[in-house]
Amino acid sequence: MTKNRLLDLKKLKFEVRDVMRYDDAGDYFANTIVAYDFKDDVITNAIFLHEFIEYMLIKSSGIEPELIDKLDTVPNAEKDYPREWKLYEKYHDMANSVERQFIENLGLNWEEYDKTVNTAKIKTAVRHLSDEMHKKQMDKKDITKAKRIVRAIFRKRK
Question: pTM for the whole thing?
Answer without folding.
Answer: 0.79
